[in-house]
Design brief:
By secondary structure, the chain is an alpha+beta fold. Helices cover 39% and strands 10% of the residues. α1 packs across α2 and α2 packs across α4.
């Protein structure tokens, strides 16, 4: 879906927008989903976020996005691609600059995406969560 389609769906039916996004995630092969998605909110929280953000003025109102798991989001556990960070560090109590800016423009934080462990590489290879590949082009990072 393009931005306009997400915005229209989020305004008309936030619950359907949440279901659509979660269905798209579920449609990914399990190993890809595990390697790509480090966190996403439950359906009820995602529905509320679509409803809240679609009602805001802004160029991204109701458009979902996934932030790399390095950018802090309030209450969102951070792994930074590691196997231990979320266990020893509490989730942030406020949004970082990127998440705050996108939220202010109406975007919906739909989840976080894995990366090379502690961002120490460009390939997306990750021994803890699986190698991050392009969902549309298996075998490519």
């Amino acid at each position: 879906m393009n931005f306009a389609a997400w915005q229209d769906l989020a305004r008309r039916d936030p619950a359907q927008a949440a279901r659509s996004l979660l269905q798209r995630l579920e449609a990914l092969p399990a190993d890809q989903r595990r390697a790509m998605v480090s966190w996403h909110p439950a359906a009820a929280a995602l529905t509320a976020a679509f409803a809240r953000q679609a009602a805001r003025p802004g160029p991204l109102a109701g458009v979902p996005y996934f932030a790399k798991d390095l950018f802090p989001g309030r209450g969102v556990p951070m792994h930074a691609g590691s196997g231990f960070l979320a266990e020893i560090k509490a989730p942030p109590t406020e949004d970082g600059a990127l998440v705050a800016d996108l939220t202010g423009r109406g975007a919906v934080l739909a989840g976080t995406a894995h990366l090379h462990e502690v961002a120490y590489g460009l390939t997306g290879d990750n021994p803890h969560w699986g190698n991050v590949e392009s969902p549309g082009r298996a075998g490519r990072t």
